[in-house]
């Protein structure tokens, strides 16, 4: 585990702390000819050597991480397009982490047991997370579908695409977590924060129907998240 953590810290420092934005832009523009690409790899190599304390025992892990990092970054530069940039960011990081795990496995073989993963508690947690995100979203939309005062409202047409959906996801996940760890004060803080942010919009709109619509949606969202949190707190321990 200590080896993996050293490799992970080196990766996080190299990819996110010691990689300026102008390096990223230069790599995207010049690709394999970019000097910044090789400077980026050198930074990773130095960080790995420092964290591994120049221990020659780990030369295989060092080479695997450095070579794979170069090839993954190079592949990303050539296959990444503007429309799939976000996808390739996460794919790039997932591949890097995979090779960190593989490098660790060389020195400390481990076995991944599905029995340890698919426990009753983990399955309940997974089910609850699905419910407070996608399932709850569909339930709320179904219950309030007969009212839609925001339709045709110019202010809502200028909002980010699917912003409300993801805000709801994050809101209910946070409530679920607060209740699961028995921190009810966090739920109150979240409700107060949302009320403050929404108050300005509702006051500006001077629309009673919109106010009622938002209030119903908020109470349903909080209610479903709280109920799910209570179920997990009772049966997941």
From TrEMBL:
Xref: InterPro entries: Phage_phiKZ_Orf197
Membrane-spanning segments: 35-52, 58-75, 87-108, 123-144, 173-193, 213-232
Keywords tagged on the record: Membrane, Transmembrane, Transmembrane helix
A Pfam family this chain is assigned to: DUF3307
Record protein name field: DUF3307 domain-containing protein
Lineage: Bacteria, Pseudomonadati, Bacteroidota, Flavobacteriia, Flavobacteriales
């Amino acid at each position: 585990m200590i080896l993996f953590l050293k490799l992970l810290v080196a990766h996080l420092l190299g990819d996110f702390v010691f990689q300026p934005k102008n390096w990223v832009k230069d790599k995207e523009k010049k690709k394999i000819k970019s000097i910044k690409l090789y400077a980026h790899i050198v930074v990773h190599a130095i960080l790995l050597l420092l964290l591994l304390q120049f221990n020659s025992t780990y030369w295989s892990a060092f080479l695997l991480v450095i070579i794979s990092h170069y090839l993954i970054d190079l592949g990303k530069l050539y296959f990444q397009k503007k429309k799939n940039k976000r996808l390739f960011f996460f794919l790039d990081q997932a591949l890097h982490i995979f090779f960190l795990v593989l490098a660790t496995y060389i020195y400390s073989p481990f076995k991944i047991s599905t029995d340890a993963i698919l426990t009753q508690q983990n399955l309940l947690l997974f089910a609850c997370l699905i419910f407070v995100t996608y399932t709850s979203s569909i339930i709320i939309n179904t219950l309030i579908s007969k009212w839609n005062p925001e339709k045709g409202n110019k202010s809502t047409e200028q909002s980010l695409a699917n912003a409300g959906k993801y805000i709801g996801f994050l809101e209910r996940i946070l409530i679920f977590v607060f209740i699961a760890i028995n921190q009810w004060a966090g739920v109150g803080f979240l409700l107060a924060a949302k009320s403050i942010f929404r108050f300005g919009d509702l006051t500006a709109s001077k629309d009673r129907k919109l106010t009622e619509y938002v209030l119903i949606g908020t109470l349903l969202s909080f209610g479903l998240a709280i109920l799910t949190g209570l179920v997990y707190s009772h049966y997941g321990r």
